[in-house]
Design brief:
The chain is α+β, with helices and mostly antiparallel strands. It contains twelve helices and 25 strands. It has a seven-stranded mixed sheet, with helices on both faces. A six-stranded mixed sheet has the order 8-2-1-12-21-20. Helix 1 runs parallel beside helix 4.
Length: 487
């Protein structure tokens, strides 16, 4: 069986390795770091990512280790502009799970070890050749020893400064925000909101964001005027306190900092995620504002999207053309995330007093509407991610509210779609002789366990990652769809 070589053992690379391993694919995963990060870095696992983790039965350890954030508050001065609760979104996970990246990596690493796979650390990818028949990669260990590895596929999960992307010569287009930003993970007293709620303070001098990590510990983000240095300076605890006193409600006191950092926001993305037998995922493919905590989640969902497709190709079930859907699906999502996070950042950092007043008034009006709150919550939690223009979308029943490419919400007390050890499509239908014949004909692609029909005399075919592939009134269109995928 062809080996998949994964470069980068952060959350994205580990997610991809775990998914491929549970599908029985041979995996090697390397990283230049001697050990996993000890920093909190990416802090939130959103609802859609938890749903996808649940397909492999992996969400429970994360939930046990994390802290649930239930709402977001927008505040301008002393006035509450809006309150967005996550309580009513349609998911088993109506919250943002606050979990430091160091813990996310630890739990993913433990899961990977349960499949008998260990990260190969202090191993560097020196070079590779990318041919239609496979990959030849040159690896180097810390002691200078080199190895030439033949692999079927190369997966670049190696971050914003990706060696894989640079070696491909893939353009990483976009721009750098002119403001400096401070990040502080600190202990704090005097937080005016429940510990289960984040707060965004719009001040005339800039924005202040406070995320609870766990009771008594918080992440503080704020924009600053450019320092004029090559890199933003590391903030001091005193500077963080001053920002809180100026832009916050007052009475909040920080102490015992865990991590202080300065950064600038980049919004960049590749146009192509697939280059022959090489794929780019996560920060290697897209970086953007940290507003909304979308980065790690988007990267992990890159991995979920690619893993089932790659597994079916490597196992010889599906044609390699299946992999051509990865770029249009995930690049489209990347574009939307860049737009969403960029818009949040722009709105929060308005400087013109008239624009600020208009923003506050308009936001207060819009966020009083339940539909606006729902849409904002679904975008934030990434439940709104869909593939309406995917080349994998098939037929659609006239009048059906659920269109191909849409997320199919998990149902309580039902096994998650795609939860088996082999990636299979799920069929929502009544059992008939024709349906039984379909299950037998496509046993390599269809889960043998039928799901309850979503509507009378209708069949809905759902992909292994929980998105609708097609719907029909008979088995013929479903069979035609599946036949096109088979090798």
């Amino acid at each position: 069986m062809q080996t998949a070589l994964i470069v980068g053992a952060g959350p994205v690379g580990l997610t991809l390795a775990c998914e491929l391993a549970r599908y029985g694919i041979s995996v090697r995963i390397i990283d230049t770091a001697a050990q996993r990060t000890d920093k909190s870095k990416a802090l939130i696992i959103w609802s859609r990512t938890l749903e996808l983790l649940d397909r492999g039965g992996a969400s429970a350890p994360f939930i046990d280790a994390g802290f649930k954030a239930l709402a977001v508050n927008m505040i301008a001065g002393e006035k509450a502009v809006g309150h967005v609760s996550l309580h009513n979104i349609q998911t088993p996970y109506p919250f943002g799970l606050m979990l430091p990246q160091s813990e996310t990596e630890r739990l993913l690493d433990l899961r990977l070890q349960s499949f008998g796979i260990s990260i190969e650390r202090q191993v560097e990818l020196l070079s590779f050749t990318n041919s239609p028949h496979g990959i030849e990669a040159v690896l180097q260990r810390a002691d200078g020893h080199q190895e030439t590895l033949s692999a079927g596929w190369l997966l670049g999960c190696d971050g914003a400064h990706s060696t894989v992307r640079h070696s491909l010569g893939a353009p990483f287009t976009g721009e750098t925000n002119k403001s400096d930003w401070l990040l502080a993970d600190v202990h704090m007293t005097g937080y005016r909101r429940p510990d289960s709620e984040a707060s965004i303070h719009w001040h005339r001098d800039g924005v202040l964001v406070i995320f609870p990590i766990c009771p008594g510990r918080y992440r503080v983000l704020a924009d600053l005027p450019p320092a004029g240095t090559e890199r933003p300076p590391t903030p001091t605890l005193e500077q963080v306190q001053t920002i809180l006193d100026t832009r916050g409600p007052g009475g909040q006191n920080v102490f015992d900092p865990i991590w202080l950092a300065g950064f600038r926001i980049n919004g960049r993305k590749v146009s192509e995620y697939r280059w022959g037998r090489v794929f780019l995922l996560g920060d290697a493919a897209h970086i953007h504002s940290p507003a909304g905590g979308q980065g790690m989640n988007t990267g992990m969902q890159d991995a979920f999207n690619l893993a089932w497709k790659l597994a079916l190709v490597i196992r010889g079930v599906c044609k390699e053309e299946l992999l051509n859907s990865y770029t249009p699906e995930r690049s489209g999502v990347g574009d939307k995330v860049l737009k969403f996070t960029g818009r949040i950042t722009t709105i929060g950092t308005l400087r013109n007093p008239i624009a600020q007043k208009l923003r506050n008034t308009l936001a207060h009006f819009l966020l009083s509407k339940s539909l606006v709150q729902k849409r904002f919550a679904e975008n934030l939690t990434e439940l709104a991610v869909a593939y309406p223009c995917s080349p994998l979308n098939g037929s659609s029943l006239s009048g059906d509210s659920l269109k191909p490419g849409a997320r199919v919400a998990p149902v309580a007390r039902q096994a998650p779609i795609g939860s088996g050890s082999i990636p299979r499509f799920a069929l929502f239908a009544e059992r008939t002789p024709q349906v039984a014949d379909l299950l037998k004909q496509f046993e390599e692609l269809l889960d043998p366990n039928l799901r309850p029909a979503m509507s009378a005399k209708a069949l809905h075919l759902v992909r292994p990652d929980g998105y609708l592939a097609c719907s029909a009134s008979s088995t013929t269109p479903i069979g035609n769809y599946l036949s096109k995928l088979l090798k």
